Amino acid sequence: MSPAAAAPARRSPLALDPAALRYDERGLVPVIVQDVASGAVLMLAYADRQAMERTLATGEAHFFSRSRQAPWRKGETSGNTLAVEEAVADCDGDAVLLRARPAGPTCHRGTRSCFEPNPAALELGWLAAVAASRRGADPGSSYTARLLAAGVERLAQKVGEEAVETVVAALAAAARPERRGELVGESCDLLYHLLVLLLATGVPPADLAAELVRRHHGPPAGAAGKEPVAGAGPAVSGDSAAAGDPAAGADAAGDRSGR
């Protein structure tokens, strides 16, 4: 079994200049919060310059309440804090995106986000970025660097090994539900090694996302007549037996600390 991927380390300090933001006539800027792990949009709030400064200084999300006309820290009463991994201003500097790790339900209703139902469940861009950041690391101290140094052939073999272990764990979990944790762990190992293999072969994860969407929705408007992607499943049609299945036509074939 290979090491399972861990969450990315918090960036400190967060690289955003509150003075460079364009606040409205009330001195506020809208702040969108996104879950790092799932990609789900969690909430929309507002912050003044002081709240932004506190967010960047502490790594926890702070806002300004328009109804109470007072600053507040997310989770100060509920305990459902937001650990901020990244703060990014939009192209005009008049809105901010916080990518964060929630400590519990974000919404006051007790739901994961303020936008429900919300199908977002797994986002791997952050893990792909961690793997890419290890490309120039010392293979003696980084597992990812050792994988990359081993070459594509060894990486492909490793992905095959992880796939087999995932299958074994799935069969065990089907027979004994209490062993589902093993399936989760093996699946994480498989996804991690696949991301490293994609990195080694120069295939960005965004290409997979685009192909999955294409298989579900068909080619975008105006793309008729273009050559299909080699080895890809057929474009989905309304009566196809595979309609709505992003994997239709496909062959059935982590960065832990120190990686």
> What do we call the CATH homologous superfamily of the largest domain?
MazG-like
Q: Give the ordered list of helices and strands.
A: EEHEEEEHHHHH
Largest sheet, strands/sense/barrel? 4 strands, mixed
CATH structural fold name of the largest domain = Helix Hairpins
Number of E-type strands: 6
What is the top-level CATH class of the largest domain?
Mainly Alpha
Strand order of the largest sheet: 2-1-6-5
Residues in helix, %: 25-40%
Low-confidence sequence ranges: 2-13, 225-259
Helix-strand category: alpha+beta
Could you report the average pLDDT, rounded to the nearest whole number?
Answer: 85
CATH architecture of the largest domain: Orthogonal Bundle
Radius of gyration over alpha carbons? 22 Å
Give the amount of beta strand, in percent.
5-15%
Number of helices: 6
Shape: globular
Distance between the termini: 15 Å
Could you state the oligomeric state of the chains shown? single chain
| Tally of structural domains | 2
Keywords:
Helix Hairpins; disordered N terminus; 259 residues; 2 domains; Ubiquitin-like (UB roll); alpha+beta; 4-stranded mixed sheet
Walk me through the structure.
There is one protein chain. It contains 6 helices and 6 strands, in the order ββαββββααααα. The chain has 259 residues and is of the alpha+beta class. It has 2 domains: 1-123, Phosphoribosyl-AMP cyclohydrolase (Ubiquitin-like (UB roll), Roll), CATH 3.10.20; 124-259, MazG-like (Helix Hairpins, Orthogonal Bundle), CATH 1.10.287.1080. A 4-stranded mixed β-sheet has the order 2-1-6-5, with helices on one face. Strands 3-4 form a two-stranded antiparallel sheet. The longest helix has 24 residues, at 152-175. The two termini are 15 Å apart.
